[in-house]
Amino acid sequence: SAVISQKPSRDICQRGTSLTIQCQVDSQVTMMFWYRQQPGQSLTLIATANQGSEATYESGFVIDKFPISRPNLTFSTLTVSNMSPEDSSIYLCSVRGVSYEQYFGPGTRLTVT
Amino acid sequence: GIQVEQSPPDLILQEGANSTLRCNFSDSVNNLQWFHQNPWGQLINLFYIPSGTKQNGRLSATTVATERYSLLYISSSQTTDSGVYFCAVVMDSSYKLIFGSGTRLLVRP
Fold first, then answer.
1. Are the Cβ atoms of A42 and B90 closer than 8 angstroms?
2. pLDDT, tens digit (0-9, with 9 covering 90-100), for A10-58
3. Searching chain B, which residue's CA lies closest to the CA of residue A43?
4. CA of B30 vs chain A CAs: smallest distance (Å)
């Protein structure tokens, strides 16, 4: 299984600002994913990030709000732009391991005031 | 799209009790995983089980793919088992995980 780290682990941000979340994997992986978990809710996929191509966004998520970079096979960033209190969530990155199994990072707990 | 339903939504157990959590899905799947989310928010992989039965200590899981359901068994529950249990499926070659709504488990000492 892959070892995944995320930075920051938590943050409190003001409305209107942006936060960039980093995801680092200890091995090269083709597919990385970004999920959002709003308070008390399940996880929802934001986008799929493959190295060397533009991220693919799910319905309801747009690149202007959640720009993603994937510069190499071990790293990705998700930016939450122009934040509002509704963006307060846990943001998690995941990677695909052998076959279809996925592994998750520890998450970034974001509070927007 | 595929629907993933989990039951029960909430469960309270006394330490030492056994429980069964259920996951129903609406279409055939390539992958099914069970996760435990601890109180700190971290998702811990429990089982990767698109079909068949697996056991890991006090936990076991069974997926009957032809009938589109999976069961997670927790035996001799401990307070550290508390948290939210999610099942998630991949339906196609996109590898995207679709999560159920979760079962919130509280184990009391």
1. no
2. 999 999 999 999 999 999 998 899 999 999 999 999 999 988 888 999 9
3. B99
4. 7
* B7 shares contact with chain A (CB less than 8 Å): no
A58 DSSP assignment: P
Q: What is the pLDDT of residues B16-49, one digit of tens each?
A: 999 999 999 998 888 899 999 998 889 999 999 9
Residues in Cβ contact with A58 at an 8 Å cutoff, skipping those fewer than 6 apart: A44, A45, A46, A47, B96
The answer to whether the CB atoms of A106 and B102 lie below 8 A apart is no
How far is the C-alpha of B3 from the C-alpha of B29, rounded, in Å?
Answer: 11
Strand, coil or helix: B66: helix
Establish whether the linkage from the previous residue to B8 is cis, with ω within 30° of 0. Answer: yes
Nearest to A109 among B41, B50, B97 (CB): B41
Q: What is the pLDDT of residues B77-101, one digit of tens each?
A: 999 999 999 999 987 777 889 999 9
What residues form DSSP beta bridges with A3?
none
Q: Which residue has the tokens 């056991």?
A: B55
Q: Which of residues 37-96 of B touch A (CB under 8 A)?
A: 41-43, 45, 48, 50, 86, 88, 90, 94-96
